[in-house]
From TrEMBL:
UniProt record similarity statement: Belongs to the bacterial ring-hydroxylating dioxygenase alpha subunit family.
Cofactors (names): Fe cation
Record domain Rieske: where: 59-163
Keyword Metal-binding: yes
Alphabetized Pfam families for the sequence: Rieske, Ring_hydroxyl_A
A Gene Ontology molecular function term of the record: dioxygenase activity
Protein name listed in UniProt: Aromatic ring-hydroxylating dioxygenase subunit alpha
Length: 430
């Protein structure tokens, strides 16, 4: 017996109300993908930007992108543009990229260097602390100190830069940072440089991008470059007689590696908080297969100059996921970070950044094609998968499908987190 497919109804315009969104959230079936409007509706997208991206800690950059005084980057999150700059005392500051005169955008380029922040419209000038220091023709009663740039909350977690656009950001970030610093600090990302950065546009909803990232059910057959360095049973499998020995061997390899790394002062144990905190996160250091050194086509290090004080190349891969928009891989020789920024209900920016030791010399210690080959290939493969998924959920035949309990538990954790935070937003909570 077949069930006749029902057309997907999308609410449009101002008719979409929080009450309708609440009903959609309440209907969410645990253990299954989300209903189509979560991926397709413009009204849901606007709610995503208000309740998720404007209220949570968002990963946007790495500290080496703003390495010297006056270095800056701009990051667009929805309608908001944020300016991150390093001041003369080497502190990082974040401001809304909006002049206090008549609202002109201050810096148009994604990245650059400046002495002071000068508005291109009427040349109002701010120092690197955001203070207005020059404004012509404003009269004797004008008070410059009342027109400083509006600040944005910024945290530097061992070289990973997070911003929050809310007036009162989630307070649990400090707990997350305290738990993650011992894992991240030995890699010394603050002492790295950017070797490459690639931006990719996916014609799909941002949640499909995150869902795709949170599982490796699809890796075999789709990611031949990535799986070179991954153990066969390292990304989940339904246990049974056919693979019991392989799973046991992998688990023993993980146990032995953790013992070795912990003895070296490298925390490795899994922390699982993806859907139990407002600032959801997960981390674990896992061994890499074959040469076991790095996520490269040869599985050997891509950079001869190792990070921090490392002398051992075989330190596995430390993974760090944060809700709602990032994942990172820390290895002995380089760090690769991913930031996901929604552009519209059906377009998503994925920005990938590779960092190596600041003293590494391109062409001597590393070359960019070797460093970036695995993730450039994987990102493009993932783009196609996300775009196929977006096309599929647009069909009237689409229904939420069941997650595998063995390989898609992290997708369920993402969906749980997303639904709970949207419910909090709709209900007026923070």
């Amino acid at each position: 017996m077949t069930t006749k497919a029902q057309p997907v109804t999308l609410h449009t315009g101002k008719a979409w109300a929080n009450a309708q969104l609440q009903q959609l959230l309440e209907r969410r079936l645990p253990g299954h993908s989300l209903e189509a409007p979560f991926y397709l509706s413009e009204e849901v997208f606007q709610a995503d930007m208000e309740y998720i991206f404007a209220r949570h800690w968002i990963f946007v950059a790495v500290a080496p992108q703003v390495a010297e005084p006056g270095d800056y980057i701009t990051v667009d999150v929805g309608q908001d543009s944020v300016l991150i700059v390093r001041d003369d005392d080497m502190n990082l500051k974040a401001f809304h990229n909006v002049c206090r005169h008549r609202g002109s955008r201050l810096c148009e380029e994604h990245q650059g260097s400046l002495g002071n922040i000068v508005c291109p419209y009427h040349q109002w000038t701010y120092d690197l602390d955001g203070n207005l220091i020059h404004a012509d023709h404003m009269g004797e009663t004008f008070l410059r100190d009342q027109h400083s740039l509006h600040k944005v909350h910024l945290r530097n977690l061992e070289g990973l830069l997070f911003i929050c656009l809310a007036d009162e950001p989630p307070q649990d970030f400090e707990d997350v940072a305290a738990r993650m610093r011992p894992y991240l600090a030995p890699h010394k990302l603050n002492d790295c440089k950017v070797a490459a950065q690639v931006e990719l546009i996916e014609e799909g909803n941002w949640k499909l991008t995150l869902e795709n990232n949170r599982e490796c059910y699809h890796c075999v057959g789709n990611h031949p470059e990535l799986t070179i360095s991954l153990y066969e049973h390292g990304f989940g499998a339904q246990p049974g007689p056919q693979n019991a020995e392989g799973i046991a061997q992998f688990e023993q390899t993980v146990k032995d590696s953790h013992c070795r790394w912990e003895a070296m002062g490298l925390p490795s144990a899994r922390i699982e908080e993806l859907d139990t905190l407002i600032t959801g996160f997960r981390t674990q250091r896992l061994p890499l297969d074959r040469a076991g050194e790095s996520q490269t086509m040869s599985t050997e290090v891509a950079c001869k100059k190792l990070l921090g004080d490392f002398t051992d190349k075989s330190l596995g891969g430390l993974s760090f996921w944060t809700q709602p928009n990032s994942w990172h891989h820390f290895m002995s020789d380089h760090v690769v970070s991913f930031s996901v920024i929604p552009l519209s209900a059906g377009r998503t920016l994925v920005r990938t950044t590779w960092c190596v030791h600041k003293d590494a010399v391109e062409g001597v210690d590393y070359d960019v094609p070797t460093l970036t080959a695995v993730w450039n290939a994987t990102n493009d493969q993932d783009r196609r998968l996300v775009e196929a998924s977006h096309a599929g959920v647009s069909s009237r035949a689409y229904r939420p499908g069941p997650y595998s309990p063995f390989t898609e538990s992290l997708v369920e954790a993402f969906s749980n987190w997303y639904v709970s935070r949207m419910r909090a937003g709709v209900g007026g909570a923070r």
